[in-house]
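Researcher: Next sequence.
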Amino acid sequence: MSLFQGLQFLTTVNDLKALPADGMEVAFAGRSNAGKSSAINTLANHTRLAFVSKTPGRTQHINYFQFGNANNRLVDLPGYGYAEVPVSVRQHWEKLLSQYLVRRSNLIGLVLIMDSRRPLTELDRQMLDWFRPTGKPIHCILTKCDKLNRQEQIAILRKVEAEFADESMITVQLFSSSKKLGADITEKVVGGWFDAMNYQTEQLKSEGENPEPIDGE
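Model: Next structure:
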């Protein structure tokens, strides 16, 4: 079975103090209506695993999904940037997202979902600015690429790749949920992150060192 095929909903939280204490996590983040939930559903080959709202900005909690390995998890972060959300809610999201991305030691990588027709918005860049200092890898998924012709797809992919040409920890790909394109690339990247962390842990153990436990906040 592929990595995402075994994905199952685990829990939902709205406070960093309620986050699971153990395990390794890969977070999926993205602007409201960028296609984040649809991408997760496509990767899992499940039409309703992640909630797809007709009202962007409705999902306000951190949702946890568990891979086949109980210690490996996908974290679906609240969508951001929806103008009609009340100011108090936007402020809550901003605090929740920034603190999670900066402080969460369990987090091993960020998958940033961006609409291929409107990538690298101001808020996308804010997410990157929060997470970059951790030194952990970032994978950018340019969704809805089926809305572009092949020439436009190549052009936008090259443009975003050029933006991160000097940052080896950031990778970029095209993705289409409706055409089911790009899932294999995402799976290879995310699976590679988990494999690398597991290998690092085993190396430390074999050298007689006790790796620091991955604690919650």
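Model: Strands lie at 8-13, 24-30, 62-66, 72-76, 107-115, 138-143, 170-174. The radius of gyration is 17 Å.
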